[in-house]
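yo, Filamentation induced by cAMP protein Fic is done. seq:
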Amino acid sequence: MAKPSVERAPGFDLEMFDYQAVKAFISQYKETDDKGRYLHWSQLKWRVPQKDAEKIWSVVKFKRAMLAKFISIADDKGAVFSYAIPHSMEAKLHQIVKIAGGNVGTVAGSVASDKIQKKFLVSSLIMEEAITSAQLEGASTTRAVAKKMLEDEREPVDEDERMILNNYSLLKYAERVKKEDLSLDMILEFHRIATQNTSENNVVPGEFRTDNDIYVEGNRGEIAHQPPCYSKIPDRLRVLCVFANADHSGLNGGVFIAPVIKAIILHFMLGFEHPFRDGNGRTARALFYWFMLKNDYDLFKYVSISKLLKDDPKGYGLSYLYTEKDQNDLTYFIDFQLDIILAAFDELQQYLQSKTDEFREVVELLENSKYRMLNFVQKDILKKATKEPGRIFTVKAISNSYVISENTARTYLNALVKYKLLLQTKDGRTILYLSPADLRVRLTH
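structure:
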C-alpha cells in the first residue's frame, strides 16, 4: 500500500530546550491543539504564525516529552519508541474501556438474547471483518458473494476469495490461541493462515522474508518506509514477543500499559518490522485482535476495524509515517486507532439496530399468524427470504451461519417447507431451499 509523503519533524533535545526563546508560547501551546488533536509538525506549522513555527513546535515537543512513556522496543538504529496519553486520548481510552469492558450480552442484547443468536452474531461479524480486511489489502470480491462463500463453505474460485477465507480462518485461530503466550511460531502461524494458497508478491506462507527489496512507497514513488534488515527479523520479533508477554498490569509496582494501548502497539510494530513479503497488514490486525481477546475484551469479536481502515487508507498510512518521522512517537498511530475503534463501536450499534429493525419487521408479520411459534433461526431465515425472493438456502450454510448442527438446520428448513414458506428442490445430491416470490403473502395466510 502506497503511503503519503511526510516531512520529518524537527528534532528535539530536552537538554537543548531554550526556555527564554519560547517563554511567550509556554502557556499558550500544549501537547494538543484546542480541539484535542495530536498534530504532527507537517500539520502544525501551517496553523501557527510562520515566523514562530519552530519555537512553538519546541514548546509542543517539550510538553509532550513531559508525558512520554518509553517502551522496551527500539528501531534498528537503537532509538526507542515512546507514546503519550494527553487528556483528549485519556477520554477516548476511557470510553473504549467502558464499552469494551462491559457485558457483551448487554451490548448485543437487542438482537442476541439467547445462545444461538449470540453465536450467529459473532459468526456474522467475524465474516464481515475477514472480508473487509482482505478488501483493505486489495481483494475485489463483493461482500455478498464473499459472505455466501463463507456460509456455504464453498471453495474459493480465485485469490481474492482465498484471501477472504484465509482471513476468516485467521480470526478464528486468533481466538483459539488467545490464552497462549506470543511466540515466533505463533506469528509464523498467523502469517501462514493469512497467506496459504496465495501467490501475491511471491509470498511464502509462514516464512520470513529473506531479502531487503520490500519497502513502502510514498505518493511520489520515493521510499517512505524501509523495514529493518531481514537478517534482524527473528531477534527483533523475539523482543516484540517479550514485550507482548510481559506483565504490564501495573500491579506490585510494575509498569502499566492499558491493554488497548498495548494491542495497538503490537499492531504498529508488526507493520513496522514488515517481516513478510506480503500479508503483514492482515497478520498485524490479527495480532491486535488476539491481544484484545487475550485480555477478555470479548466485544472485539463483534467489531470490524478493517472496514474503517479501508475507508481511510490515507489516515492509516499517515499515522505510521508520523510516528516514524517524529522520533518514534507512537502517539500518532495510537490516537488514530482509538478513533477507529470508537467509530467501529458506533458502526456495531448501527448494525445491531438495523438487524433489530429487520428482525422485528418479520416478527410483526408473524405475530398474528399461525407461524408465531417459529424459533429465532427460522424467523431469521424468513427475514432474509422476504428481502430476497428466489434466494437459495442450504443445510450447510444455515449450519455455519447459526453455529448449529446440520441435522438441526435440516429440521428447521424442512419445517419451513412443510409450512409452505420455503420451496424445495435438488441440485444433484444437494437439497436446495428456495424463497418463494409470494412469501409475504404466504406469511399472512
